[in-house]
Amino acid sequence: MNTRPVLKLKKVQDMGISKGSTVLVRVDYNVPMKDGKVSDDTRIRETEKTIKYLLTRDAKIVLISHLGRPKGKVDPKYSLKPLVEHVEKIMGVKTHFVEDCIGQDCEAAKANLKNGEILLCENLRFHPEEEKNDESFAKELAKGCDYFVQDAFGAIHRAHASTSAITKYLPCGIGFLLQKELEYLEKIMTNPQRPFVAIIGGAKVSDKIDVLNSLLDRVDMLIIGGAMAYTFLKAQDTNVGNSLVENEKIEDAKQIVLKAFRNGVEILFPSDHLVVREIKEDAETQNTQSMAIPDGWIGVDIGDRSISIFAEKILQAKTIFWNGPVGIFEIDKFSKGTLELAKIIAQATKNGAISVIGGGDTLNALKKSGINSQEFSHCSTGGGASLEFIEGKLLPGLEALSR
Ligand code: AMP
Asked: Which atom of ligand 1 is closest in space to residue 300's alpha carbon?
């Protein structure tokens, strides 16, 4: 079993932050934008607890974040400026903006900050040094600040200047969002209440082999859906028609099934499917009678019988981890399986199970289902980071904080 060393991480509330200090906070404000406006401010709200705590310390708060992939160049499309009004409204205090995260203007803006005010700095990734984990850039970021608080779980699996090198220049701690992420992920990985059921969907086996292997050392049951399932079914000589298959991963799929068998983990695949002849919004759909998909047809969602079987198992679970949609949920006609699973997991949570939902597309699917994220125990804000954590990897940002 892959085990990660236990890291010693200081919590923001244990840092002894003195009143009126300047605190540099790395947040993940990589929010979705539409026509130059923030279309969903969930990521800003997620940092409220940490920022409000710092405000009780009368701190001057300097926020740094990335947004999108500007590739080391200034690109107005990725400016954090439109976020200012949201930060101000959510945090309830005066929020200033500075058009660079380092340099003279930034230093002046930090020096002019009053206690209990916020300064939002421009996109870290406008500087190529950020993604190169450049030490002198990190030193510049730290200028004029007394402490560093990391609260960007979504960026913690990257060794960047604002997640790694920065920790060399200021006393560090972790914010409440990062604490919550680690608490839930740690709980399901080290001491899950049983039965522990994981549901893994999505497009590719190749993205999730390490996650599947790691989960097989921990779960009681593994449910596989989405396009991934077709590679597994093909590996067992089941006909999958024209469904998406990774032929070069068939051997890996066989090994995973073998490991499940060796570890005594029950592994479930869809026993029927929603199929179409062509992937399009108004496609004519059919529910297969069996696990096999006829020639010329494409599997786009799990079928009705699979939904009932998976529901029965999920409702018996005490711990649930879910990552990846079980169908092409972006198209309404193919979203039933994913949306029903969301409802069933919410029901299981209501009955007392602990549910952890992996980020990215799974959260988008949840939004579509209309179910509030509060109906799950924890919805991770970092898709990539949560998967790497579950794989048992040492996340560079966490390792740096513990040094
Ligand atoms: P991932 O990022 O690996 O979680 O994959 C998410 C993507 O998997 C979504 O965009 C889904 O549309 C896609 N997906 C799920 N089921 C299928 C399927 N049966 N065929 C093709 N794509 C699928």
From this structure: 19
Q: Comparing 73-82, 119-128, 319-328, 373-382, which segment has the lowest mean pLDDT?
A: 373-382
pLDDT for res 367: 82
Residue 14, both tokens: 């244990």
Ligand 1 site, residue 325, Cβ cutoff 6 A: yes
Cis peptide before 70, with omega less than 30 degrees from 0?
Answer: no
Determine if ligand 1 sits within 6 Å of the CB of residue 229. Answer: no
pTM metric for this prediction? 0.91
Output the six-digit token pair for 170: 């200021």
Fold assignment, 12-178+395-402 = Rossmann fold (3.40.50)
- The whole-number pLDDT of residue 2 equals 58
Q: Taking residues 87-98, what's their average pLDDT? A: 98
Supply the residues annotated as catalytic: 43, 204, 360, 384
CB atoms within 10 A of CB 42: 14
- Give, in degrees to the nearest 5, the angle at Cα 377 between 371 and 381: 80
As a CATH number, domain 194-352 is: 3.40.50.1260
Could you write out the DSSP letters of every residue in 23-83? Answer: EEEE------EETTEES--HHHHTTHHHHHHHHHTT-EEEEE---S--TTS--GGG-SGGG
Q: Where are the domains of the chain?
A: 12-178+395-402, 194-352
